[in-house]
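Typical record is below.
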Amino acid sequence: MKKWRLIAGILLVFILGLVVGSWGTGMYLRNRLDRFRENPETRKASILERLNRRLGLTDAQRSAFESIVNETEQKVGKSFEKHEAEMQGFIEESFAQMARILSPEQREKLNTLRQELEKRRKAWENKPGGQHRMHPPPPEE
């Protein structure tokens, strides 16, 4: 009987360590990635620092890399805005298709859900750096 208690205790400690470790890692990464996504200057500085550290850039190279990173950031932002409008069209079309299948009561619930999602999206975009995002916001439940 004592052998089973020992095994159960070790398993419990292992499982709790796994859960706490996963939670802590998730919190750390979420915090780090949020700061990285929200501030374009932090993102660019981090990229340049990593390139400098790995490649041992000279001052001239670092300056040239900075220009390239800035230009790339602008291109990515423009491309995202272009494709975001196209994606919004797909979403509108999907909601219209869904609404045709639903009863009037269900359509009302779908419209409410859609308004909530749009409200969340706008709130996220209005956060500092939201308009320069590289990834969509995480879904909220």
Helices lie at 2-38, 40-55, 59-101, 104-125. The CA atoms of residues 105 and 111 lie 10 Å apart.
